[in-house]
Design brief:
The chain is of the alpha/beta class. It has helices at 21-25, 32-39, 53-68, 92-100, 116-129, 153-156, 216-237, 255-265, 276-279, 286-296, and strands at 2-13, 17-20, 43-46, 77-81, 106-110, 135-143, 161-173, 181-189, 197-199, 212-214, 247-250, 305-312, 316-323. The chain is globular.
Length: 324
Amino acid sequence: MVLRSHIVGCGSYLPERVVTNQELAGRVDTTDEWIVERSGIRQRYLAAEGETTADLATIAAQRALTSAGISGSEVDLLVLATATPDHTFPATAAKVQGRIGMVGGAAFDLQAVCSGFIFALSVADNFIKTGQARTALVIGAETFSRILDWTDRGTCVLFGDGAGAVVLRAGRGKGTSEDRGILSTHLHSDGRHHDLLYVDGGPSTTQTTGFLRMEGKEVFRHAVTNLASVVGEALTANDLTPADIDWVVPHQANKRIIEGTARKLGFPLERMVMTVERHANTSAASVPLALCEAVTDGRIRDGQLVLLEAMGGGFTWGAGLVRM
Ligand code: COA
């Protein structure tokens, strides 16, 4: 028997305010048609003034705990993936830990931008598999609206705010792909491309927060190649083919990237969970938001095989295979 991390609950939160492409077109030189054609995005949710990443993360975390039927005091590991923390320090995870009534264990932030949730899931899974944690809360939460240059139409139309969370619990399995829980995770980064998608500020460089900068075409090109490669790696590691996968929950950056990756791998689009048209790119929150939506509405069911994948600044990219 081997230790496995079972996903026993999930929760998400989107801010109240919806901003449509039409509304954006009132203040940025863009059109609904351009945004939909290039990205598939029709609207995004934006945090209210004063609403922070920790606020979004706390609600998602509380909903995940409720769906798992456990209290915060049972959690002994909290990993929060974010590129938009409340403060330079302490970790946003510490704030959330205090709010959910988690008193023991460890809470820390993890920064892998849009791949952050997959990286955090992998870290928590490894803590559980080595017996260092029994109950982990893995959160992806972002307020990207705070780091957007609202005069740069090439980037500001693509992102939104939100949070998603899952609860992992240690369980046992036979060590085969029939086991429930996280079967494997696969992480990569390539720092040679750190300046293709980055924020031009930070405590050690400009002492300002800075704004998101992106070479869109280059990012697009690398995204499809890297995602197809890491998904292939996850399938090979588990001796599976695309036909064995019930659902793919991709990072929701761009509809064309999702479609391009599906085509390259031979996944039918009906098995790709898609929220990008409503949520836009919420970075580390996008995968848990989409996963939670598909679990809650009954598309993803117990026993099904789900493949999670994401790519982000760094570059970072990764995949995780889970039997629900
Ligand atoms: N509205 C209208 N026109 C816009 C625009 C907008 N919001 N943003 C850019 N344009 C214009 C450009 O100025 C350019 O005009 P020009 O030809 O007169 O110079 C034209 O549209 C084409 O711009 P380009 O950047 O070449 O478009 P593109 O086809 O590469 O699409 C992205 C741009 C950003 C949508 C696309 O590159 C992309 O999706 N990249 C990946 C981004 C991503 O997912 N990043 C996150 C990964 S985690």
